[in-house]
């Protein structure tokens, strides 16, 4: 069984029910049988309440967000509605983002208003508050990033208190960053050594570095970019290391890797599995559905083995597109030109979609029975945060290029068909400018982080969605006509129901 949070509880504070579960049993306790005063009596109960927030961590479904960019096609109606230009105040993804994040905020506020009743030591109290504060801050940021001005909620609201004034985007960002600073203080005590899967000071720094990179890009603010890079530098010296194999990092062999800063743990327990293998695999693998599939646009992003774009590469042959390419292409996408025996599991292309190899565990023996943990933050992304931020501030340098080449080199480890290494020549510094290095960095983020569900934020902050999402999605054949209306679609509509419930909110422009 996985070495992770030893006793994980999932608590849902809604509709009069409180649920908790451990690895060994599941119990349901109606709220009528458990008063709040009775609940907050021990650290074990505090731990149960804090663990409830871990259910809001991104899981494998986060991959669907890549379908809002050029690199992925989804058969899910929620993302198709948006990718084809039909986003509206009633869109399911719009509504689920709004309600889901405010539910997380409510749970965090419930915890923070009651945890003082348990009589914990100041040190223990700070460690729990730091974890919960992280979730509350991130939920506010996700709302702010998509919707702009949103209500900041820092207390439990009664039914008659739901009409909250929106806070300006800048003020929300200030709140989020200050909350993460406080969380970092609370989680930095030397005696805090949490289990794999818990929020740590490193996860807080990774989130803040990511946010400052996003916001520094949007605002062309070098001070934010410098702080993002400074945080990334601290993480890079914090004892983490790249996993030896890019393939294995996204299979069970990678769980607990020194590259992982935070993962959403999916326990090896009956009833605690997900269907990622079916969502991504071809029909020959457990009658998979190919719910999410890579596009030709992603395939074309991978350079040749020397790091040169295929549009100018003398090595690239369109009749053999997987030959002489960056090795991560073969580790991310199955070659549609051949049937593949992947460690005893046959992968046969269905003639319409491309199929991911990344995240596929060939050892799975049953449909819908995957327990692979979902990586939320990892060192590879932190490298890229650092390099992009520093290039925007100071331009290219050998130290920055070494980090890019390190990721490229890791991509070749064990990547040959016989399990041997593929030698990946380093990209040279000579002749690079800030602009040409920026193109390399952006390409590197796209191919290194593909199918991890965070690239939408990159395309959004680079202002490339109106360029890339007005082109058809193509697999082996055309899959979907896409539409993106700029500038409107860069900010999502407030859900209809929320405008009715809270007349203090104003609909975003164009909706």
TrEMBL record:
Predominant cellular place of this UniProt entry's protein: membrane
Pfam families assigned: SusD-like_3, SusD_RagB
InterPro entries: SusD-like_N, SusD_RagB_dom, TPR-like_helical_dom_sf
Domain of life: Bacteria
Boundaries of every RagB/SusD domain copy: 286-511
Swiss-Prot/TrEMBL keywords: Cell outer membrane, Membrane, Signal
Subcellular location: Cell outer membrane
Similarity section: Belongs to the SusD family.
Taxonomic classification: Bacteria, Pseudomonadati, Bacteroidota, Flavobacteriia, Flavobacteriales
Protein name, per record: RagB/SusD family nutrient uptake outer membrane protein
Record-annotated SusD-like N-terminal domain positions: 91-213
